[in-house]
Amino acid sequence: MENKNNAIEVKDLKIRYRCLRKMSIKRSIKHVFKMQKEVFEAVKGVSFDVPRGEIMGIVGKNGSGKSTMLRAIAGIFSPDVGTIDVGDNTVSLLSIGVGFQKQVTGRENIYLSGMLLGFSEEHINNKIDEIIEFAEIGDFIDRPVKTYSSGMHSKLAFSITAILETDIILIDEVLSVGDAKFKKKSYNKMKELIMNKDRTVIIVSHSSETLEELCNSILWLHEGKVKMLGTPQEVLPVYEEFMS
């Protein structure tokens, strides 16, 4: 890492999807199809740094590359070009539909998720009762995740991220989940976590009010490229006018 004061350094990041599309050559009894490869570049040469302890918000219309970039920082996607450096920091991604093995129980998924985040079994053992209590899903903790409602899935995912407390937290459109009572509890917990001066956070959100309240800086992505980077006061009014 070039600057030890940074928790995240992204340099010239490019991420491409390779899609397969069926294209008919001609109609025949055998229905012969030709498979054609298409390449879609979701992130197009993005560079930025996030200083340790800071909170960056990311805005942009749907399809601008926000979620793809978060998944790359979390290690789910590999860059096609460029580098992502998070040093020796532990990183968690809080996003609906990411990270659980649906065939095994919630309890087993806590251990799997924790180990993938780099925590020891001993550390997870020390935290698991707190995670289960916070999640408020009762006996379902020992049932397969495939039996969970979307709300229960979100509660458990949030609880793992909130209680294990990684150095870097990536939040993709999820700042409060579950019913009204849990929404309030989760939002307060997340505020407590991200206000820790040693924790670095990236938040993807469509809520300008939330981003203005929580963030030190805003990165505006448009069609896979950086359109603007600055303080919330500098970026958000311009972004909102652009989107109106």
Explain briefly what this protein structure is.
This protein has 244 residues and is of the alpha/beta class. Helices cover 34% and strands 30% of the residues.
Description:
Helix 2 (106-116) packs across helix 3 and helix 4 packs parallel to helix 5. 36% of the residues are buried. This protein is 34% helix and 30% strand. It has 7 helices and 9 strands; from the N terminus they run E-E-E-H-E-E-H-H-H-E-H-E-H-E-E-H. Strand 8 (217-222) and strand 9 form a beta hairpin. It has helices spanning 66-73, 106-116, 121-135, 150-164, 180-194, 208-214, 232-243, and strands at residues 6-24, 33-51, 55-59, 81-85, 91-94, 168-172, 200-204, 217-222, 225-230. The chain is α/β, with parallel strands linked by helices. The protein has one domain: Rossmann fold (3-Layer(aba) Sandwich), CATH 3.40.50.300.
Describe the secondary structure blueprint for this structure:
Layout: E1 6-24, E2 33-51, E3 55-59, H1 66-73, E4 81-85, E5 91-94, H2 106-116, H3 121-135, H4 150-164, E6 168-172, H5 180-194, E7 200-204, H6 208-214, E8 217-222, E9 225-230, H7 232-243
Parallel strand pairs: 3-7, 3-8, 5-6, 6-7
Antiparallel strand pairs: 1-2, 1-4, 8-9
CATH class: Alpha Beta
Order of helices and strands: EEEHEEHHHEHEHEEH
In spatial order, strands of the major sheet run: 5-6-7-3-8-9
Overall, the morphology is: globular
Distance between the termini: 39 Å
Instruction: Please compute the radius of gyration using only Cα atoms.
Output: 20 Å
Q: So how many helices?
A: 7
**Structural class, please?**
alpha/beta
The count of DSSP E runs of length 2 or more, i.e. the number of strands, is 9
By CATH, the superfamily comes out as P-loop containing nucleotide triphosphate hydrolases
Stretches where pLDDT is under 50 for at least 5 consecutive residues are 27-35
Question: How many distinct folded domains?
Answer: 1
Strand coverage percent: 25-35%
Q: Report the CATH topology name.
A: Rossmann fold
Mean pLDDT metric: 87
CATH architecture designation: 3-Layer(aba) Sandwich
Helix content percent band: 25-40%
Largest sheet: number of strands, sense, barrel closure:
6 strands, mixed
